[in-house]
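Incident log, structure service

09:12 report received: a user says their structure output differs between two submissions of the same chain.
09:20 pulled the input from the user's history:
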Amino acid sequence: MNNFSVNNSLVKSKLKTGLLHLVILAFSILICSLIGCSSSKNNAHSTASSTENNKELTPVTLNEVAHSIFYAPQYTAIELGYFEEEGILLTLDTGFGADKTMTALISGNADIGFMGSEASIYTYKEGNEDFAINFAQLTQRAGNFLVSREQYDSFSWSQLKGSTVIGGRKGGMPEMVFEYILKKNGLTPQKDVTIIQNIDFGSTAAAFSSDISLSDYTVEFEPHATLLELSGDGYVAASLGVDSGYVPYTAYSARKSFLKAHPDTIQHFTNAIQKGLEYVNSHSAAEIANVIAPQFPETDIKTITIIVNRYLEQDTWKNDTIFTKESFDLLQDILLDAGELEQKVPYDDLVTTTYAKNAVTKFE
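09:34 re-ran on a clean worker, output below:
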């Protein structure tokens, strides 16, 4: 074989090898491209689905006056997914006081406020043009309890004469209902009964248990009332909810401008709360406790059940969210009696029942 033949064979061999490498490289690029495209499509689909889901759920920020088992229907609606069913992505904040919750609402840091409706009256009287309008009532009795250092076989409110009680903020619904009961029983606040009003809302139970010389009684929401009992630091002597009668204690409100701009959102929100009410009014304390337990990880299920049962027995929760004129008039009577209101304000300005009535009709 001559040199030309050998060189020719080598050239052909290298050409074949080169072509093979090109084919392999091209094939590899094609595979990578296909995988990349598939991955991009999957990522695009995932993003599109996420965007689509976000569009389906309307974000709503709710600021509640306190985080208490007293509001079990609301937490039932959260835990059972009723808000999502109504197309709402709910963010829950706690104001720790109606004044703070109303501030969050009026400032726009919250879309909906959940508090005593007296706060809406105060805001209206201050002349705020974009005032809060109540659109759904949740509780129809006070949710707090009088806790004593002594255990009574029988209790009467007259026994408070000459005593000291840790009460609530002046002008707040808990304090006004407490004073309303005292007056009904012939006692004059701050004359017959000394009321301590300078302790923060969330610190009253701790103050009561840590200093036995501070007071004879304290007025507590749950779970603090029951926890004081379980620890041996106090005993529930009376229910303010039972002894005050039916009172429009807490309701949902939104700024006038928000109601006008987002009526569908308000309706869907009210629908979710209505579902929560229907659940708690048709299930046992144990069933309700199991549903809302994730909202109260620091409280054991037995204690939650005891508390829920207390609220069920005193008919705490309404069957619907309709805030009637009679209830609003009673609220204003309490404010007038407490010296917090000089003249009644128009019911039609501060309450709408449209959404509550629609919610009832929808689920009949």
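09:41 both user submissions now match this output. Likely a transient worker issue. Closing.
09:42 reviewer note: Confidence is low (pLDDT under 50) at residues 1-54. The domain at 144-244 is CATH 3.40.190.10 (D-Maltodextrin-Binding Protein; domain 2).
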